[in-house]
Amino acid sequence: MSASLSEEEQLEGLKSFTKKYGSAIISGILIALIAFFGWEYWQKKNLAESQMQTAKVQQLMDDARNVQANPNAMTELTEAADKIVKDDPDSAQAIQTQFVMAKLAYDKGDYAGAEKALKKVENSKVKDSGLTQIVKLRLAYAQLAQNKYDDALKSLALVTDPAFKATADEARGDVYVAKSDIENAKKAYQSAWDALIERKQERQILQIKLESVGVLVDDPEIERPILETHVDES
Known about the structure:
- The protein is mainly alpha-helical.
- The chain has a domain at 2-158.
- The chain has ten helices and two strands.
- Helix 3 packs antiparallel against helix 4 (92-107), helix 6 packs antiparallel against helix 7 (149-157) and helix 8 runs antiparallel to helix 9 (182-199).
- It is elongated, with a radius of gyration of 21 Å.
């Protein structure tokens, strides 16, 4: 069940939410996508036939952890990443490599650099549709961080796998929030909420986002306290 707030309350909530949580949530989502989808998802796949390339990616990830301590490391890292992509552009390793490079760029506020890294594998023909969907999602957030709203929406339109519907709808809502398009933000967030309810997945952050645009939702899995009421019998 949902209840609508006044337009003035909606706009005030929207401004407060984006000011307080906007960049942190975008960054948090990106980190979560990298940490979970970018690595765990890939690790579960059978990549035994390309162990050498996998080892190179692992070395790249290890080197990336020390990049700030070495001024020349970023150049060397970029060259190593580009070589992996050049050697096998349609491999899972090529995508993982650019996930690493995009994260490094994003962490230092170089959102254009993050977008550039992801675009190198945007059209990968890897036989794993899940990875290509993740590329589109992360690309959309890199574009959103640059206020490239239309580009972000175009990237999200290419996320068509049902498994990523809720994530794509939530990201779409984030774009509309940034555009101050409150009505479309409501629709996108509500669609994401419905999908997460059906799949019984975590949704606390999404609930905050919905409330920020004036939609109050009840989570069927969370019992709300019964408030005592006092009747004046005088």
